[in-house]
Amino acid sequence: AGQWARAVAILRELEEKCAAPASKLRQVADAMAVEMHAGLASDGGSKLNMIISYVDNLPTGSEQLQRLSSKACCPAAQVVPTRAAGTKSVGGARTGPRITSPIHFVPAAQELFDYIASELAKFVATEGEGFQLSAGRQRELGFTFSFPVRQTSISSGNLIKWTKGFAIEDTVGQDVVSELTKALERKGLDMHVSALVNDTIGTLAGGRYYDEDVVIAVILGTGTNAAYVECANAIPKWHGLLPKSGEMVINMEWGNFKSSHLPTADYDNELDLDSLNPGEQIFEKMISGMYLGDILRRVLLRIAEETALFGDTVPPNLEVPFLLRTPHMSAVHHDTSPDLRAVARTLQDVLGIHNTSLKTRKLVIEVCEVLAKRGARLAAAGVVGILKKLGRDVAPRDGTPMPRTVIAMDGGLFEHYTRFREHMENTLKELLGDDVFSSIVVVHANDGSGLGAALLAASHSQYL
Ligand code: ADP
């Protein structure tokens, strides 16, 4: 009985530390908007890089897609370092291989880019009769790269740092496009990178193709990030000519957001200290798919250490970082069977914990609920921060109707973790109120980043 009380106390303490009531989320949203301003004012002025994407014209929807197919995936699909998309044909675009690689896979930079080039070579080899490259023309590529890159033009940029468990020293600071270009040459592939596109920018552009009111894109996958359409004259650090459209798409790199208002528990601090990038990507570490499962593991480990609910000794698998993954967590969380079979199975198969009581299984679900809810509510607060920056978080004072705002969402966490998605949408409604919320549309832009990158490559073709 004493040990049950101890387990419940651990859960209650977690709930208390992770609580994200509306009042707190408003502070988070305010802090996000403040950091956005600071990051737009100067490079290095904020935790938010607020990267200028050099995309000042988004697809209109009138682009002609010749065909969209051939999404190749390599077998070890865990973390996506890059997505390469889009060989252009006249007025058309198609999405290419999505290149993925297992977590903590740390090759030398050259190996990584050679790997991407070889996947592209395979993709090119699958092109059928239908695809004809005009004589004397190079294939053009939209290169989606989902890590922070300081862009120097639409088709060049230097890697700021790795995230999501990647760490390849010699690439930081280098131009990822010239690294890829060298790898393409080594492979003998005649291809030109026309656009270097962060996956959030790709998702925004892909979303725009279908809906002209898309102004924000959010990725909730292995990592998390957001992009949005900013007024070009609201970017003090932009010293170039004002684009004709008057707009510039900004890649926020919001995963690196940090604020004293974030509801943090000891597990978060420990996860951060044990990570490859301590002190960085704090928002991401509380929200995204790479980390949620590992926070859950840390809470369960504590319960195992302080009670005998998971057996008399601590199950060794509970001590293995990242063994318990977010898809396991969501399988546990969504279990509605009377005897919580999926919970029992996951505990057994992944963690080697046998013979759990129904009560213990319920407790595990409650821990999932606390962590998923916190992550989802923080992600919603981030979106409200962007809406605030855009002046779209409140109804216009002059009585004109609210503009329609479409948010393109993508990523495995958003797509598959239903409870997370529901919490996020409910929190948006809670924070914005029914009226403003009714002007907001959240769409799932399923792999929109590939399409977006292809369209951007086409519109930045060297042959235009
Ligand atoms: P990435 O973010 O790596 O580019 P995805 O958008 O496909 O790629 O997201 C993959 C991530 O989504 C995984 O790392 C995992 O954290 C999360 N995920 C995948 N499937 C599920 C699931 N069933 N439930 C919860 N999260 C999932």
From TrEMBL:
Protein name stated in the entry: Phosphotransferase
Keyword Transferase assigned: yes
Keyword terms of this UniProt record: ATP-binding, Glycolysis, Kinase, Nucleotide-binding, Transferase
Family statement: Belongs to the hexokinase family.
Hexokinase C-terminal domain ranges (all copies): 216-458
GO terms assigned for molecular function: ATP binding; D-glucose binding; fructokinase activity; glucokinase activity
Domain Hexokinase N-terminal: 11-209
